[in-house]
Automatic annotation (TrEMBL):
Domains as described in the record: Contains large globular domains required for ATP hydrolysis at each terminus and a third globular domain forming a flexible hinge near the middle of the molecule. These domains are separated by coiled-coil structures.
Name listed for the protein in its UniProt record: Chromosome partition protein Smc
Subcellular location per the Swiss-Prot or TrEMBL entry: Cytoplasm
Full-protein interval shown: 1 to 173 of 1132
Domain of life: Bacteria
Organism: Sphingomonas panacisoli
Entry function: Required for chromosome condensation and partitioning.
Family membership noted in the UniProt record: Belongs to the SMC family.
Subunit relationships: Homodimer.
Binding site for ATP: P32, N33, G34, C35, G36, K37, S38, N39
């Protein structure tokens, strides 16, 4: 899987629509302190289904919505789109959150469950907790991880994390 394009609107400091092309290979994000580098990585993880507001550095999930500044009013929604090449085809995943109303997901324009998005990325050996997304402090977290946590990271990297979800589903049926 390769992420080819990231579009954001109203997500954290990205109040205006931003459209970023991501080229093959390693991508680094550089810029002055506070310009939104970490916010970009968070946008990727959020769209892949991250559901912990704390890991988005917020108190609640609505904190990912542009909160306003002296010069600009707050927004009432945030939307992020990831265009990815998976198995030779292009897939667009969109997550949208409305203030006070929670999140909704779309894959190629179809409304889907959060779980469908998680499975899509898990099968493509990536996802919100993928070691392919190296956020600030992450190297230290890998070193300090407990064995079970490190195993989960390895399973995600190997693309087998989705199998656990499906086994759990099957056991409940
Ligand atoms: P550093 O180099 O210090 O790690 P960075 O480039 O990673 O900085 P970020 O942490 O991505 O910067 O961005 C921080 C900025 O995003 C801050 O100015 C903060 O006010 C802004 N920000 C975060 N959430 C929101 C929000 N909901 N609404 C508006 N601005 C926000
Ligand atoms: Mg940062």
């Amino acid at each position: 899987m390769q992420i080819k394009r990231l579009r954001l609107s109203g997500f954290k400091s990205f109040v205006d629509a931003a459209d970023l092309r991501i080229e093959p290979g390693l991508t680094g994000v550089v810029g002055p302190n506070g310009c939104g580098k970490s916010n970009l990585l968070e946008a990727l993880r959020w769209t892949m289904g991250e559901n912990s507001p704390k890991s988005m550095r917020g108190a609640g999930m609505d904190d990912v919505i542009f909160a306003g500044t002296d010069a600009r009013p707050a927004r009432d929604f945030a939307e992020v789109s990831i265009l990815a090449e998976i198995d030779g085809g292009e897939t667009e995943v969109v997550r949208r959150i409305e203030r006070g109303a929670g999140s909704a997901y779309r894959i190629d324009g179809r409304d889907v469950r959060a779980k469908d998005v998680a499975l899509l990325f898990a099968d493509a050996a990536t996802g919100a907790h993928s070691p392919a997304l190296v956020s600030q402090g992450r190297i230290g977290a890998v070193i300090a991880a407990k064995p079970a946590e490190r195993r989960a990271m390895l399973e995600e990297a190997a693309g087998i994390a989705g199998l656990h979800v499906r086994r759990k589903d099957a056991e409940q049926k």
